[in-house]
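yo

u said u wanted the structure for the complex thing, so here. seqs first:
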Amino acid sequence: MNDHKNGIDSRIAEAAQDLYNAPPPTPGKEMWTDIQSRLESDTDVVPIGSAAGQTRRTGMGRGVGIAAALAIGLGLGRLSLVPTPAGDSVVEVADRTGPEAERSAQPYMLATRDHLDRAESFLTTVKTDRASGWNNPEIGTWARSLLSRTRLLMATPAASEGPEMKALLEDLELMLMQIVVTADTDDPQESRIVDQGLEESGLLLRLRSADL
Amino acid sequence: MRPLTWISVNDKQLVDRIRSGDRSAQRALYDAHVDRVFRLAYRMSGDETLARDFTQDAFVRAFSRLDGYRGDAAFSTWLHSVTTSVVLNGLRKVKRLRSRELGLEAAHGIAHSVPQAEPDLKTRLAAAVKALPEAYRTVFLMHDVEGYTHREIAAALELKTGTSKARLSRARARLRMDLQEFAEEWVA
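structre next:
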């Protein structure tokens, strides 16, 4: 660590160790709880009992697996933290026929549609709360839950449905990350970024009109 | 501190146990490395929420892609390669979002910086480190602040050790220049 470091460099390094983003104690247990739940819902993890190097599901198969897990989670109401506009989510696939129906019936498409509905409800809630000046203490928890599922969906074929869907999921991920940060910091500057992001990105409209 | 060779052998055993289905080994491997991963994520992001997210993402990704770890390097080296990738990509996403939104603010004349009189060392240091190009800043934080070796940095960032050394040298030169007003005090 001291290679070719002169006195000033050493002082700068010491100052940086003490003053630049000095880390708080590692929240090891809390993070492990989240990691465990993500590992349990992620079919991408090396399966218990599999030998090293064993062939694993990839591509579409893996994506469908993740989406199926999401769909099951949705079915069990595991995402019911976020209020839906009118009771349970409605997936409009019953009237469709032909290839469109086949595509829409894919587990990842069902999961994506439901997720986008919930994300839209959540962002509407955020927008309404902020407009009314209420600092909803649950927002951070909801955003984290949606963020983790958005990331799971980004690993499914849903993200390959086209550039619009990919961009939509990426923008949703960024917005949720920003809301998580804002919920924890209570910084007016961060809050303004969320407000403006919601206004300028047209995210709500895009979530509503996503073609699935 | 345990010798590096002991840690590496132990890590390899833990990885083998995970591959054979022992989930408790995941926790053991996590416990062995989480502190260093979180510290690095925090140093690089300066935000606890982001540092937690990056740490979690790094471990989830590492455990999910364990078959990509061939065992020809220390597990910690491979894990830190995953970590730096997660953190740098995550920070770029956050920066993209913020610059887009701040750009709008600037365009509307909302954003304005208030110059501070005689900023203290902490403020100047933070500004100087943040002003470093990302490639230099990452090496500086890993080497001079968190104590990684050039070999570890090179492996994590997929560089040659010479490149890591060159970047550190440039980072230090930039910081010396930016913080020269404190130099007299330090030399005295």
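Chain A has one domain: 58-209. Chain A has a mean pLDDT of 69.
cya
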